[in-house]
Amino acid sequence: MPEMSQRPGNRLMDRPEYKSKPKPLTRGPDATVFDAVSAMSDKNYGSVMIVDGDEKVIGVVTERDIMNKLVGKGLDAKTTKLSEIMTTDPRLARETDDLIDWLRIMSNERFRRLPVVDADGRIKVVFTQGDFVSYSWPELVYQARSMATATVTKNWPFFLIGGGIALYSIVMVIVVSAL
Length: 179
What we know:
- Helix content is 47%, strand content 16%.
- The chain has 179 residues and is an alpha/beta fold.
- The protein has eight helices and seven strands.
- The chain has helices at 16-20, 33-43, 63-70, 82-85, 99-109, 129-133, 137-154, 156-178; strands at residues 26-27, 47-51, 57-62, 87-88, 93-94, 113-117, 123-128.
- Strand 6 (113-117) and strand 7 form a beta hairpin.
- It folds into two domains: 12-133, Roll (CBS-domain), CATH 3.10.580.10; 137-178.
- It has a four-stranded mixed sheet.
- 20% of the residues are buried.
């Protein structure tokens, strides 16, 4: 897993969605695609996390995987195992990872589902791009304002010097124009 910053308040586990999300749908690698699709349909889920005996994520099967790797190839859902069509070694986030980091990674790498695991690597929740949309503009503006304030405060002497030079320049332009 990539090393992520861990700013309190921005961690995945601090988001309201983390606490309110239902338990992810999981199956073992030997379960059939038919079993997984039935469960996905019952729960209206778009994916199933493939886990080993310790509930550690070893793969992901999405609706797109089912369409492209099963239906598109004419395979039988009742005999095809999830291990045959799963995406192996998916990107996994730790629950203490920073939300903004993963928002950027998901956008850049173009994937829509992010399994989130605890310190032991066990699946906790699955964040989707839709969950990140709830990270609203006011929150982003607040963060930008906080970062700008921290930058100005840290560099206050430079802003004073720059402001003084700008004010002096304006006064000189007015004085020279008046002559």
